[in-house]
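Lecture notes, unit on protein representations.

Consider one protein chain, 76 amino acids long.
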Amino acid sequence: MDKKRAAFLSIFLFLAVNIVCLTKVIESYYGQEYGHVYTYMTVALLSTLFAVAAFFIWRKEEYKKVNDAKSILSRE
């Protein structure tokens, strides 16, 4: 699996983790289990940071190929 595909799939994985954790945050808050709120919120924030990092990796790989193709065409 190339780097672009791995980054693209990891974006969806991290966003899924984020959705689940934010759901758990809401359930914990309404259930007055405040210790779980901080735990799930921390995991949600970390998964958001990882998704953003994966997005920048994917974007770099995606547009690197487009720019390489443009530079090849401009040489001809």
